Amino acid sequence: QVQLVESGGGLVQPGGSLRLSCAASGFSFSSYSMSWYRQAPGKDREFVARVTTSGAITSYADSVKGRFTISRDNAKNTVYLQMNSLKPEDTAVYYCGAQARGFWGQGTQVTVSS
Question: In this predicted structure, what is the pLDDT of residue 95?
Fold first, then answer.
């Protein structure tokens, strides 16, 4: 069965860093681009970052460009999101997914607050 399990969220002060991980199983991970989305309270889910199958091409939302880095390790069936210079407005539940297949994880909470 398909599973996407996010981890690495938590409480961090403004300016701090977190690294999210998403472990995938049950499908051909290396065949799909992988994405991170986030949803803040009362807001729609929004795109954060995407990485192609080989990891060679990445794309980012303007709001995180230069601060966040998406990467993947196909040998470990894992996608990562390195988040630096975090801001209070980055507070949200972060989801990873293979969007083309409609596979999504359960999310991990990131809270940026002093």
Answer: 98
Strand partners, 93: 39, 109
Q: Which two tokens stand for residue 63?
A: 């709001």
User: What are the structure tokens assigned to 3, written together?
Assistant: 């599973």
pLDDT < 50 positions in the chain = none
Neighbouring residues of 46: CB distance < 8 A, sequence distance ≥ 6 = 37, 38, 39, 61
> CA 14, CA 26: separation in Å to the nearest integer?
36
Per-residue pLDDT at 86: 98
Say how far apart CA 43 and CA 32 lie, in whole Å.
27
Identity of the residue numbered 83: M
27 neighbors 88 (Cβ within 8 angstroms): no
- Say what the pLDDT of residue 3 is: 96
Element (H, E) at 65: none
Report the C-alpha gap between 20 and 5 in whole angstroms: 10
Any idea which residue has 């230069």 for tokens? 66
Degrees, nearest 5: CA angle 2-8-11: 135
